[in-house]
Automatic annotation (TrEMBL):
It comes from Rothia santali. InterPro entries: Histidine_triad_HIT, HIT-like, HIT-like_sf. GO terms for molecular function: catalytic activity. PANTHER family: ADENOSINE 5'-MONOPHOSPHORAMIDASE HNT1, HIT FAMILY PROTEIN 1. Residues 4-107 form the HIT domain. The active site is at H93 (tele-amp-histidine intermediate). This is HIT family protein.
């Protein structure tokens, strides 16, 4: 059975994508820790991050870094957070988000009803920063 992330990747469920390549995608979380919270997800369904082949794990980290730099440029937070925890969906993924404090690392703080227009603006800002940095993968994500 496909995970919710696979359904998003395949277009069965909507997603606000900021990155698409042949190995990974990145899209906004529907329950963000903060405005601009992105999930970096391998296309291949692998449940636990420790089971990722090393080249794929390295690629996911490189995508996370590019997305993190775009988040930094778009939102100018004190830091850009990165977390791998994987309890909510059995499909490896990295959380990347703008953060101003350690309190914003708690999943008890997620916004369960984020403003759709704000989400669209956040995705556009991140895609724009990625494109400005020369990442053409953001072009495919905006299509």
């Amino acid at each position: 059975m496909s995970t919710v992330f696979t359904k998003i990747i395949e277009g069965e469920l909507p997603g606000r994508f900021v990155w698409k390549d042949d190995q990974a995608v990145a899209f906004l979380s529907i329950q963000p820790l903060t405005h601009g919270h992105v999930l970096v997800v391998p296309r291949e369904e692998i449940d636990h991050w420790v089971d990722l082949p090393a080249p794929l794990a390295a690629h996911l980290m490189a995508v996370s870094q590019a997305v993190g730099q775009a988040i930094d440029a778009a939102f100018e937070p004190r830091r850009v957070g990165l977390m791998i925890q994987g309890f909510e969906v059995p499909h490896a993924h990295l959380h990347v988000w703008p953060t101003d404090s350690i309190a914003e690392f708690s999943f008890d703080q997620v916004d369960r009803d984020p403003d759709p227009e704000g989400m669209d603006r956040a995705a556009e800002a991140i895609r724009g920063a990625l494109l400005e940095a020369g990442h053409r993968e953001a072009e495919a994500a905006g299509a």
